[in-house]
Amino acid sequence: MVKKKQRFHGLILGLLIMICTSLVVACSAQSTTPEPNQQPEADKPKTGGTITVAYASEPDTLDVHKSSGGDMGITLNMGGSLVYKDPVTKEFKPYLASDYKISEDGKTYTFTIRSGVTFHDGTPLTAKSFKDTFERIKNPKTKAKQAGMVMMPVKSISAPDDKTLILELHEPNVSILEDLASSITQPLSMKAIEKYGEEYGRNPVGMGPWKFESWKPEGVTLVRNEAFKWPMPLNENQGPPRADKLVIKTIRDKSVLLPALENGTIDVAFDVPAKDIKKYRNNPKYQVMERLRAGIPFSLYMNLTKPEFQDIQVRKAVNMLVNKQAMVQAVLMGEGEVAQSLLSSSTLGYDKSLEKYGYQYNVEEAKKLLDAAGWKVNGEGLREKDGKVFTLSFLISARFEKQAQLLQAMMGEVGIKATIQNLEESAYIDGLFKGNFDVTLANFSYDDPDALYQSFHSSQIGAGFNIIGLKDGKLDALLTKGRTTAETEARKQVYVDAQQHLLEQAYVVPIYSDKIFVVVSSRVKGVKWTSNLPDYQDSWVDK
């Protein structure tokens, strides 16, 4: 494999995961690594049995191109990617591509597609499979969501023969491999798409270890792909999955989730609240998997198209009104980190020196800034300017209800009247992208500092994750430079400079970096991480 020296690449969608669940957009790169506190597995792995997993969000569709990101916990298991990220070296290595090379100008990526891979419907995987998949994403008729954002840097796709795939980029972009290591760019069976048409999202066909069987109210059922013999090299199990079935349920209510784990209804609980994790640690009945979320911390986003937030004094005041340490304690029970910059400490580009540019909790100074901006306290104790009361509506989903209530109280401390609009998850995400909010709460799980480009570059307004309408020429130049800088340390410095500018302008309130907790029943062995989601290729059921 040939590639530029000292090139750094990193993703989440982890999606999208926008979401994997929240701005979430999270794009989950194909890279697995053992969990340090994983239980010892003295017994020989067994075949058979069912692994049942629970997520908080139900997918809108299982068509990865049209999904808002809630499909990731399911479709990740059904597909594969051109490359994967080595969990130790962080290098990108061939997977469904047997080799790849990057041109000297960084704009042409040539992949050699491996032989012997077939889709679940028996169709062979070729370079044309990827070409057709990527062109479907880019076709406006598809109305691709997160997948469309991921493919924006790609100018053209060609497949001169069955083994060769060529991607031409509009400009050099060192983060493109992060997205090509994501399940959101997995190849899809065009035969199945033609067969099912608009119903493909209920009848997905991939080429991964698990095949779609059904989608019923009680959950999505995947079955073992008996023909699967092309796992990633880092997997211990180089054949089909050991379990017979993988069932994915939706359990939104955390008060229902944990009893389901404890009574054996489910085996794996994803995104367990920090307040509940203590009871499962050091308990032989369970394995606790945890990691600090990479990407942009949980933050308060101000809609910059609103007149109030076009005043930097107001933005700085809002930053100073947030008691971040109190939120880490109240929401995360101390299981997280206060965020003073726009990248979490587990992401390239984080630098502790940025803390001096962040805003400390200071109610009195916030009052002075609001006074200076013309927002005076009226007879009812509310901030008012030119006869208009300072009111804010928080757009959230149920996942952020407690955080919103705390912030509502913090805003009220200085006379800002805040209300909460709590919507169902898909309506919340729709509201984010349409800019239908005054302020909102979100995080962006992504294992690369390019999360900043996707969230704050002006080109991403209406087409990407720039939901706040931020237009800043200096910031645009820095974020573009970050995409085109290959040398790791130089690239890191670019993102340090970008974060400093974001902090100085007080565009966003970074609040905390949280941990992702997954609790696994001891009857299921060998669960490992991808970037932000569990992987079951090496798993087995101790029946």
Automatic annotation (TrEMBL):
GO biological process: peptide transport
Species: Brevibacillus fluminis
Pfam families found in the cross-reference section: SBP_bac_5 (PF00496)
Residue ranges occupied by any Solute-binding protein family domain in the UniProt entry: 91-459
Gene Ontology cellular component annotations, sorted alphabetically: ATP-binding cassette (ABC) transporter complex; periplasmic space
Keyword Amino-acid biosynthesis: no
InterPro entries attached to this UniProt entry: Peptide/Ni-bd, SBP_5, SBP_5_dom
Keyword field: Signal
Molecular function (Gene Ontology), one example: peptide transmembrane transporter activity
Identification of the protein by name: ABC transporter substrate-binding protein
Signal peptide: 1-26
PROSITE patterns given in the database record: PROKAR_LIPOPROTEIN
Keyword Signal on entry: yes
Phylogenetic placement of the source organism: Bacteria, Bacillati, Bacillota, Bacilli, Bacillales
